[in-house]
Structures are given as C-alpha cells and as structure tokens.
Amino acid sequence: MKIFDVRFLFIVVICGLLTCGSITFAESTPSNNSTNFNLPVPGTEDMFKFTVNTEGRQHFINIPVSQLLFDVTPHFDQNGQMNSFNISQNPKLIELYHELGYGNNKNTAFIYPLFTQAAYDQNGFYDYYNKKCDSRCLTVHIPDNITGTYSSSISGATVLALLGYSLLTDINVDNNPDILKQYDRVIVLHNEYVTKKEFDAITSHPNVVYLYPNALYAEVKTNYNNYTITLVRGHGYPTLDISNGFGWKSTNSKYEYDAECDSWSFYVSIENKTMLNCYPEYRMLYDSELLRLLTIRDPTILPYDVAQWLRFDNQQKAHILLADFDVKGDYIPEWVSNPAIWLENGKITRQDFSHLITYLWQNKIIK
After folding, report:
1. Would the CA dihedral through 47, 51, 261, 171 be positive or negative?
2. pLDDT digits (tens, 9 = 90+) for 239-295
3. Closest CA to 58 of 348, 314, 260, 312
4. How many Å apart are CA 69 and CA 285, to the nearest integer?
C-alpha cells in the first residue's frame, strides 16, 4: 500500500537567525480555475498582478511588492512567461514572523488538500463536470508531489509552513483520524474533497478554523492499492440537486468567489464553526493582521469586542478591545467610535481599523 510516499518540493535555506524555507510549486491550468501572473518590471511598476478565473468569474488582484511579507521569486519558461514562483522568508522580517507565532505554532496543524489538488488535475473531476470526459474522470490518481494550484490553496499552505505551523495532508487524516487530537487547533484550507472519515475527524475537533470557504464540500473514497480517489457524492453528483455531499449546514461556498478579500472577517457559523468570509489565497502574502488573528484563541472576537465597546461604557471596555490588537491601554478617544461603526457596517476593513489603533498607540494618543 502506497500511503505516505508524498514527496514535498521543499527547499530549506538559512535566513539569518532562523531556519526557513520555500515551497516551489507550479500553477497548472485546471479545467475550472486558473491563475495568470504578471511580473512587475523593475523601475516601471512595483506591483504583482494576478488574474484569477474561478468558474467563469474573473478577478484582478494587485499586490504592491513593498507590502509582501515574504520574498517571492518568479521562474520563467522558455518563452519568458512566469510559470511558477517560490515563496520564502524575508530575513529582514524575522521579528514580524515571531510576532505571527513562528516557533510557537507547532500545536496548530493545517491540512494540505491533496485530494482537491487531484480533483482539479487534467482528466479529473472538472473535465467530467464540463462534459469533456465520461465518468472515468471521477477516479483520479493521488498526486505523489505537492505541486498545487490556486484551487488547492498552495500559497496559503506555503505561508503557514513558513510560519512554523505543522503540516498534515488529507492522507494523514484519512488513515489516522485521531491524529488531529494531537493538536490544539486545526486549520482547514480549500479541502473541498474529503473522505467521510476525514470529514468526521475535522468536524468533531473542538477548535477548527475554516480558513478557506467551500471546504468539506464533496465526499470521495480512497483506494490506496491503486492510489486513487473516486467522487462519491457532492457538487451535483450523482444527481444535480446535490450540492454539499455531506449535507453540512455550515457550508459557506458563497464566499468562494471573493478572491480580493478586501472586507475579510472571521465569523461563527450556525454550527459554531469559525470561518473566514472570503478566499484568502493571495491576501495571506501581505496581510499581517489576518495572519496574526490565526494565533489568538478566537479569531472572531474582534467584532464582539467592538460591539461591546460601542454599546457600553467606552473606557470600561477599552482595554479589552485594545488587547485584540496586542496594545495595552485603558483609554481610546471617543471619536474612534465613528470608524468602529464603519467597521461594523463594512465601510472600512479590519486592517484599516487595525492601522488606526496602531497609529494612535504609537503616537501616545491611546494610553
């Protein structure tokens, strides 16, 4: 049985005080979702431009190079087109990585969606959905390597690995569901296709963050003798009226198409699951506030604390709200209630509000 022979394309280098690494991956072009990259031209443009196509919906994402939290190194094909890139730690940001939990994140594991990577491969599930092949495409080979794409949340997985989170794959959880009990917290990526054993193990864990929407959407079964997965139920199969293959009430697939993540927020689902309301694949490359919230006990606590601060005695609740930003103090100017209301109404982002609080603290306006 070929179970754990998954070879990671992981290049380890030394970055100053830290041992850090980079995961090399190639963005293939699956039949349903794809990503194109435009490399910034030195001296003319200081921007990475990503064009994301998800089920016919096109998104344009621009990331200033100066805002990147990691070094991104592109690789080109013989025609000069960028076909892959490395993500590695930036030695100048060692202090930031420690603030984001580096060295203390081992008790949190993330699950790389190897089965989802397989489903999106050529001659896979999406070629069946798009009527390019028959039901033979509903049984696919489990990849030997992690070579992921946007659809398998490869950038997010790389970021978490570089921040020291423990790495598991679908195979690990499917073969040993109790492995999740070894970790205080589990982070689910775009694990769209999982087995029933994996679904049960994840949903029964007491502390799971569903970092990507549309996770746990369809059931597959494994055959480790042939090293394959086969679609069982979900995504309009075996009948078109079936959406979530597990009948999961907390499914949040509607957020899958928000690739920009400009108004991201963690929330609690109907089944008390902690979830993000967008697809953060590229946001994780430059948003330190999003990454910081993964290290706190309850990422959804900020909206509650903002509401409490607005509703009751502002100064009595000030220290609680400030603690959400790792700021010590007992005083917040009353006029901050206006941007707090804007935050609640979605007129400004969590990052905008975080920048405001940090500015006020650095300038000793918050005391």
Report:
1. negative
2. 999 999 999 988 899 999 999 999 898 887 777 788 999 999 999 999 999 999 999
3. 260
4. 6
Q: CA angle 97-277-270, nearest 5°?
A: 120
Which amino acid is present at 240? L
Which pTM does this prediction carry?
A: 0.77
Among 196-205, 262-271, 327-336, the range with the most confident prediction by mean pLDDT is: 196-205
Residue whose entry in the numeric block shows the structure tokens 């064009």: 51
**DSSP letter, residue 254:** G
Radius of gyration of the chain (CA): 21
Query: Considering only CA atoms, which of 38, 34, 50 is closest in space to residue 81?
Result: 38
**E strand segments, the chain:** 10-15, 18-26, 33-38, 47-54, 57-64, 71-76, 82-88, 108-112, 139-141, 166-169, 185-188, 193-194, 208-210, 218-223, 228-233, 266-268, 274-276
